[in-house]
């Protein structure tokens, strides 16, 4: 059963400019494993973090780094959700996450589905 769904769109150039203007933002938004990725990939991951928050109903106190996008051995994106976001997911009965990321034409998009 679907518990929540979230989608977000990020302008890649604008996001990249923001990261350059505010270098500390990279550490606040991303886990150590995510930080070294290209701007397009970071924008897609930021969109995923926003989509996770939307799927969970935007629980107060949730930090962006609590939703981490990792890749399996085949390159498929997977979500790891911890902290306040993880607690909210457990409270909603989330057992499985579905995620799709893309970036093309200057935009990055993420879809996230939380399933019980």
Characterise the protein shown here.
- There is one protein chain.
- It contains 4 helices and 5 strands.
- Helix 1 packs across helix 3.
- It has one domain (about 1-115): 4'-phosphopantetheinyl transferase domain (Ribosomal Protein L22, Chain A, Alpha-Beta Complex), CATH 3.90.470.20.
- The radius of gyration is 13 Å and the shape is globular.
- The mean pLDDT is about 95.
- The chain has a 3-stranded antiparallel sheet with strand order 1-5-4. Strands 2-3 form a two-stranded antiparallel ribbon.
- The protein is α+β, with helices and mostly antiparallel strands and about 120 residues long.
- The chain has helices at about 10-20, 25-30, 40-55, 85-90, and strands spanning about 1-10, 65-70, 75-80, 95-105, 105-115.
- Overall CATH class: Alpha Beta
Q: pLDDT average, as an integer?
A: 96
Give the N-terminus to C-terminus distance in angstroms: 5 Å
Helix content: 25-40%
Q: Superfamily at the CATH H level?
A: 4'-phosphopantetheinyl transferase domain
Report strand %.
25-35%
The helix-and-strand class reads alpha+beta
Q: For the report, how would you describe the main beta sheet? A: 3 strands, antiparallel
Query: What CATH architecture would you give?
Result: Alpha-Beta Complex
Strand order of the largest sheet: 1-5-4
Number of helices: 4
Name the overall outline: globular
Low-confidence stretches at least 5 residues in length (pLDDT < 50)? Answer: none
Number of strands: 5
Helix-strand string: EHHHEEHEE
For this structure, the CATH topology is Ribosomal Protein L22, Chain A
Domains, number:
1
Binding site for Mg(2+): 8, 50
Family: Belongs to the P-Pant transferase superfamily. AcpS family.
Catalytic activity: apo-[ACP] + CoA = holo-[ACP] + adenosine 3',5'-bisphosphate + H(+)
Pfam families: ACPS (PF01648)
């Amino acid at each position: 059963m679907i518990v929540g769904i979230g989608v977000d769109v990020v302008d890649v150039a604008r996001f990249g400019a923001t990261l350059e203007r505010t270098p500390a933002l990279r550490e606040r938004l991303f886990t150590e494993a995510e930080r070294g990725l290209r701007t397009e990939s970071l924008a897609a991951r930021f969109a995923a973090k926003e989509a996770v928050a939307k799927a969970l109903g935007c629980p107060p106190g949730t930090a962006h780094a609590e939703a981490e996008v990792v890749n399996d051995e085949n390159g498929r994106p997977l979500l790891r959700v911890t902290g306040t976001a993880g607690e909210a997911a457990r409270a909603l009965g989330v057992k499985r996450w579905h995620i799709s990321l893309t970036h093309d034409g200057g935009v990055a998009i993420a879809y996230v589905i939380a399933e019980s």
